Amino acid sequence: MYPNWILQRAQLTPHRTALNFEGQIWTFEKLKKISIERAEQLTALGIKPKERVAIMGPSQPRLIFMMYACMHLQCEMVMLNRKLSKHELEYQIKDAQVEKVLVDDEDNSLLPDHQKPLLFSEVESSMRKPFEIEKEWSLDQTISIMYTSGTTGYPKGVRQTAGNHQASALASVLNIGLTEEDVWLCAVPLFHISGFSILVRSLLYGNAVKLYKKFDEEGAVEDIANGTVTHMSAVAVMLQRVIQGLEERGLRASPKFKLLLAGGGPVPENYIERAHRLKLKVSQTYGMTETSSQTATLSNEDALRKLGSAGKPLFFNQIKIAGALSPREMGEILIRGPHVTPGYIGHFSEKGATADGWLHTGDIGYLDEEGYLFVVDRRSDLIISGGENIYPAEIENVLLSHEAVQEAGVCALADETWGQVPAAFIVLKSDAEESELMQFCTERLAKYKVPKHFHFVPALPRNGSDKLMRRKLKDLLK
Amino acid sequence: MYPNWILQRAQLTPHRTALNFEGQIWTFEKLKKISIERAEQLTALGIKPKERVAIMGPSQPRLIFMMYACMHLQCEMVMLNRKLSKHELEYQIKDAQVEKVLVDDEDNSLLPDHQKPLLFSEVESSMRKPFEIEKEWSLDQTISIMYTSGTTGYPKGVRQTAGNHQASALASVLNIGLTEEDVWLCAVPLFHISGFSILVRSLLYGNAVKLYKKFDEEGAVEDIANGTVTHMSAVAVMLQRVIQGLEERGLRASPKFKLLLAGGGPVPENYIERAHRLKLKVSQTYGMTETSSQTATLSNEDALRKLGSAGKPLFFNQIKIAGALSPREMGEILIRGPHVTPGYIGHFSEKGATADGWLHTGDIGYLDEEGYLFVVDRRSDLIISGGENIYPAEIENVLLSHEAVQEAGVCALADETWGQVPAAFIVLKSDAEESELMQFCTERLAKYKVPKHFHFVPALPRNGSDKLMRRKLKDLLK
């Protein structure tokens, strides 16, 4: 049994800064008090310990208070991605069979229309009812559930236990170190593991989080140049904007700034080289929802020597390449460790996440002679756009549900800003305009998933067994 | 399952310095290679995986190689205290039912005469035989066994599992932080948890250990003043000598030096104040063999504000006072956490270490309003002399086995150098000289346990039920 992180952290370092948001400060003691108050309000409103709830809102303190309240209640939190369409949210809420949806008033209009959520404001103004706060947590209790798509295009709810999160945070600290002065800039979504893991680390490490509601290039550049933050998590597009911001202003990263953790897809090599010139230390990471954040991380010292690598596994983690007998042999990347999810909920709850204790990522890669991981190809033709994962099958399913569409294939096209964007290749059975299909997708898919390009073609490339060959779609453009 | 620490550390940071001894350097890769070689040599000499072995030697690299070899073989290592008498060693070796005793040639003469140990030199010059190295360890496998005495005076072999050691190292890093430059000075015995835990931390953290064969005041003072080490573990008598050394040479601790972890008994307040004047950061800790090192630690910032306190529990640990309903109420100190031993071996294997999941320390203390622990009185009249625990009952048992002794009582007397030393109060049944009793004890007890003072008295203070009142022994001196 391990202590309730929120209580223990407040007990150990009550007066340290836990959260900084738009200049306002909350200590760990304050966070504890508010989160218990929220938990009592949720109790008064009928939420019971260990129930499953969904939670949605922009990145601001009230969302963190609500999450910590749910953690006190040991509720399983389904983290809803606020970029999703109503259709997509509907699917997840139904699949997860949540007792209640908790939503920041700001995001209420994003929910499916028939939902009767509990608004944050209702909770915040509610009466309080005491509950028995659990002082100890078991490592196998589920803290969070995050949906991720897969080969089939149907999102799967991934369980992330207290043990997963804790192992991830502990393995990370053994890699990147820790001092009392550490402040982590969080401008990645709290509903993704990249953001939520910053909160977990803060509770375990006792360090401050500087939270941004939205990524703010100017703010981040200043924070990094002044050393008011020491760490930052970013996807490639944010890293690019930070680099450009520093370059344009003729600034460099402060020596106090220790690490920008770059995840959510590959980082162009050119960024790494420019970052080095700006004294901006960047570590590339490889991780996924199923591994509660980082599995491997490339240290800054190795960044130039091992360009393109995602580094070595963190201390508790193991990586192997299926079928590989020697270095540089390519194959599916398999992962093992205490950070790997025990499995899924809902429709995929029968499907184990691992085979023989190893998570089969579907990603293709190799380990070099020194054990550095190189990710060569993403699972299931995965498209990564601005750090968000997009599975072609999910978009194809939507397109195929349109009456005019005979066949649909989706693949990634390179994009200056987002790294990649989805493009659709369509065989029509009756007339339809691009604008009509785009509108159709926009109603059913998160904006970042809506194809940026539509190409009408006479046939799609298929193999002998008639399987769509997504990698050949791009050739149709020639 | 967690990775074999030695293999994983060598895989992640092969070229970092792991060990520095008398100017010679070993990297983690080197340590791995040598330890596997030793394991193969042990295999050739008939040691099988998971067997229980005893191990003894002075603090030097060959002892570490041998320990790590045993860890590769997943052998349970009984760590023999080389200060013990042959009688005492005999008891432990027999109680633990070890398959083999591994001993540094230097210490062979310290073993009971009939023992047929395996000398380190024999292992080092042996042929090698391959074995299947276990790449994963389970948290509940026993890594080390350390004997500690108790109320009865009969030493108990305490199991310390991989999970205990790992939890201890991880909780400690969350408290004291970590940077790549960290170097830990180890001049405390490797057979005690204070020393062995430095090795465990080094493997998990990837930091260097500067090992001293014996505590060397001049060397330690230089290391601290020059910043060639960043951390040091010490008992009060070593701390005192470091302080005095710095004072006499007009030196101060380097700003690079981060922390002297002072354990193994109370630290006089005067030391703390002098250390502060020397910019020497000192953290007092409270721990014991059963908790695989620190349970609570007082941070340096709190050192003066909370003089006399052992601090707050580390992140995974819980402390409560039996029966206490409010702060400052005194009672037995109870401990809970993943660092607490699952139990004992040998004669006491039936005796659980915990009740309801809590370790009953026998120590008396209280928690103040802020949750800081104050240890008021040690368990079972425990005497702590230079960081070594001495249980009066153990010495009394020896004295009572002397034909001239009718009754014997042992208690602590304050001592300038050692903090405390044991003193014996004796009722004779026939004539005996002090020198004779001293000689008798010297043959049967570790030197540090031999009473420094003998007082012949007509009767011992006893309570109504005739129980010896050790705390009243001192009054006999008046």
UniProtKB/TrEMBL annotation, chains A, B:
Pfam families (alphabetical): AMP-binding, AMP-binding_C
Domain AMP-dependent synthetase/ligase: 8-344
Annotated AMP-binding enzyme C-terminal domain residues: 394-467
Annotated catalysed reactions: 2-succinylbenzoate + ATP + CoA = 2-succinylbenzoyl-CoA + AMP + diphosphate
EC number: 6.2.1.26
GO BP, one annotated term: menaquinone biosynthetic process
Transmembrane segments: none
GO molecular function (one): medium-chain fatty acid-CoA ligase activity
Signal peptide boundaries: none
Keywords: ATP-binding, Ligase, Menaquinone biosynthesis, Nucleotide-binding
Pathway(s) it belongs to: Quinol/quinone metabolism; menaquinone biosynthesis; Quinol/quinone metabolism; 1,4-dihydroxy-2-naphthoate biosynthesis; 1,4-dihydroxy-2-naphthoate from chorismate: step 5/7
Functional summary from the UniProt entry: Converts 2-succinylbenzoate (OSB) to 2-succinylbenzoyl-CoA (OSB-CoA).
Similarity comment: Belongs to the ATP-dependent AMP-binding enzyme family. MenE subfamily.
Annotated protein name in UniProt: 2-succinylbenzoate--CoA ligase
Taxonomy of the source species: Bacteria, Bacillati, Bacillota, Bacilli, Bacillales
